[in-house]
C-alpha cells in the first residue's frame, strides 16, 4: 500500500482535499482508505442501536457487518494513545492508497495544506521548514507562503493535479508489511 499524510491547521482545507482525492484515485481504478485523527469524544454509534447497547453492556469490541459494510468499535479500558502506525495495521492489506488526515507529528511522508488568510486575518504558520516529512505543499496562494520553499507546490483547488503528482512519485509513499506482519514506512527522500 501507499500512504500519504495531509497536515495543516484547522480550516486549511485538509478534509475537503482528502474528500476530493478519493474519487480522483477511484477513477483511476485504485482502492482508497482513509485514516483520520479524531478528538477523544467522537462516536460513530448511536443510543438505541443494537451495537451501542452491546458496547454499553461492556463489550470490549463490537463488530457489525452486512453484505455492504463492516464496522468495528473497540472500547479502551484505559485511555490509549495510538500511533498512526497502529491504525494503519488495522486496515485491509489489499488497499492501494491510504490518505491520512491529521497526525501532523507523525513520521509519514505528508503534504502540507496551507490556505491564504481571509482579508483581516493573520496567515497561519507553516510546518515544512522544520518537518523533514513534508514532501510537498498544497496551497491556493503559492506567492503568499510565509516561508520560501523548494518543495513542489500543488494547487489546492485541483485534486486531479495532486493525484497526478502522487502517482508520479508513488514509489516514495510505499508502506511495506514486514516479515512479522507489521507495517514499515519508507524513509523521507
From TrEMBL:
Superkingdom of origin: Bacteria
Record's protein name: Molybdopterin-guanine dinucleotide biosynthesis protein B
The Molybdopterin-guanine dinucleotide biosynthesis protein B (MobB) domain, residue ranges: 3-140
Gene label: mobB
